[in-house]
Write the structure tokens for this entry.
Amino acid sequence: MIFYFSAQHELHAPTYEFFRGERVPCFESPARANFVHAELLARGHEVRAPSVDSSAVLAQVHSPRYLAFVQSAWAQWLALDAANAARQPFPSVWPVRTLRSDVEPANFVARLGLYSMDNGSPLVAGTWAAAKAGADAAMSAAPLLAQGERGVFCATRPPGHHAGADFMGGYCFLNHAAVAAQSLRQQGSRRVAILDVDYHHGNGTQSIFYRRADVLFVSIHGDPRTEYPFYLGHADETGEGEGEGFNLNLPLPAGSTAEAWFAALEVACARIDRHQADALVVSLGLDTYAGDPISTFALLAGDFDRLGARLQRLGLPTLFVLEGGYAAAELGVNAATVMDAFERR
Ligand SMILES: [Zn+2]
């Protein structure tokens, strides 16, 4: 399989984040993509560098003021104080209910809060370059499907599915799955389906397509009543307006077994079949793995073979985008297992 990889991802290497109130080393580390890259190469897959600029499609899935902020955020942070070069900015105030989000504050930390859903997206000098390379990868991969490739994998980081039209969150800055789906629509796909199999609900992707019927969003994830991102991902979120009926959430209780997970996958696949999509985008989070340090599902290495084989049976040109998965050393094998099973005849 052709996979996209950019060394630019190394530029996004924050040193710490906040987890359960403690300052801890980042779970979302450069090692993740490097393990995936190494394993795919070892198995003979073909690597390519992103070659298509995603700027025009990024402007269709994200708001102009948000893109302008993320692109310049580090420069603004440094402009406040040269010593900030050794510090990571985090938001500490957010425009929740009754507060205004239409007026962009002049204060940098206030703007960081305006454009963040949480304090879980550590931002450093190379964040924009790394995230943009991921979007460019999605943009580069889409035409290959139109040209007849069955599957293409964007093995990029940071992930994207928590990023909404105008906010970052959960390690995500630019929504690569949304870029992929939007790009596929432009390449001639009349209907696109997005299947998000990350442990965490893809709130950003859902919100970007919530009022659209041309892009179906289906997600299997930990129940938001107890699992991140908490405030979206319930079963009663079915879409709005023209998008009514084109959003399917399949939340599962924390600790669910692989059998429960694959039963949900069958429901997801049946809905995708009914959509009669021309192409599929898979938000491939592998934090459903039993060894994941921040998630509670119990998929084993062999289950990723089963996942890849089931996705292959959908019979759709498929663009995979790497999302979460924080058992870094096992991430490469688990991702490559999905790809090998998808390609197996
Ligand atoms: Zn996740």
The mean pLDDT is 97.
